[in-house]
Amino acid sequence: MSAPPPLQIREANAHLAAVHRRAAELEARLDAAERTVRTQAERLARHDQQLRAALDELGRAKDREIAALQEQLLTSEATVQSLQAAVCQRDRLIRQLQPRAELLQDICRRRPPLAGLMATLAEAERLGPLPASDPSHPLPGGPSSPLANSTGEEEDRDHLQPAVFGTTV
Prior knowledge:
By secondary structure, this protein is an all-alpha fold. About 70% of the residues lie in helices and about 0% in strands. The termini are far apart. Mean pLDDT is about 85; it is low at about 145-160.
């Protein structure tokens, strides 16, 4: 076998050098790509860990809020029950006081006529008893004045007693 011509050897060496350069270039690019992938994977892992931590915190916050709302619900229900009991108690008190209120309303309706009657009685009291009358001219209505305080059993006393009107209002 004969040795290849020098030109062919140079071409083959140049081709091998180009293949080595290309292989080195591809290995460098592969290393860079691997570093990029590793960096991205680490960044994604950290981001995933942060998201998991945030999700866990969000879950804990949700649980705390649910517990607070349940406590608030229990408090509100207790308040409602207390208010319902107070309403029932006041309803009972209203039912108890209703007859008295009706009685007071009746008294208020009757007050003006009573005030007139009291004024009339005061006027009669101011006038005093009737003067002694002449026995030959008795007053109509019987032996005593219609305003006299007599029960009929007091015959041994004066048959004319002074009229006494008193008010308690």
